[in-house]
Amino acid sequence: MSADLYEAAKKAMALCHAPYSKFPVGAAIRAEDGKIYAGANIENLAFPEGWCAETTAISHMVMGGAKQIVEIAVIAEKLALCPPCGGCRQRIKEFASVNTRIYLCDEAGVKKTMTMNELLPHSFETGVIG
Ligand code: THU
Question: Degrees (nearest 5) of the Cα angle 76, 85, 127?
Fold first, then answer.
């Protein structure tokens, strides 16, 4: 993974709004347009209304006009690894391909690299839509 993607995820993490969990997370996507779209988790006093860093990054990507995740880095400072939650795995998959790489990072750098299929095997597919 290139340093710019890692740095973007780290920078995004610093912008999180996580006063309740105190668990900052950052994510950065390199999309098919070559651009980086980043995001952090944004929590809410009404707890279920908060959302994850990956979701923010995906929102930025789509609003930037891109629809394909080439690679995505996720970083959390308080865990050795921060694998995307179940819901975010499905959200990433929506814009991923078999070649999409997911980098699980910590303060020091990439700790684990996974493919989309490793992250979300046996995922929901209708076989009809798309
Ligand atoms: N969180 C993420 O941002 N991404 C994940 O993949 C897992 C969890 C956030 C949600 C919440 O703000 C905090 O981490 C604690 O669960």
Answer: 140
Residue 130 inside a domain? The answer is no
Which secondary structure element, helix H or strand E, spans residue 52, and what is its range? none
Distance CA 37, CA 62 (A): 9
Please tell me the total count of domains within the chain. Answer: 1
Residue that wins the pLDDT comparison between 1 and 16: 16
Candidate from 29, 41, 75 with most ligand 1 atoms within 8 A of CB, to mutate: 41
Q: Per the domain annotation, does 18 fall within a domain?
A: yes
Ligand 1 centroid to Cα of residue 53, in Å, is 7
What is the CATH classification number for the domain harbouring 8?
3.40.140.10
Question: Model pTM?
Answer: 0.95
Quick: pLDDT tens for 54-103. Answer: 999 999 999 999 999 999 999 998 777 889 999 999 999 999 998 899 99
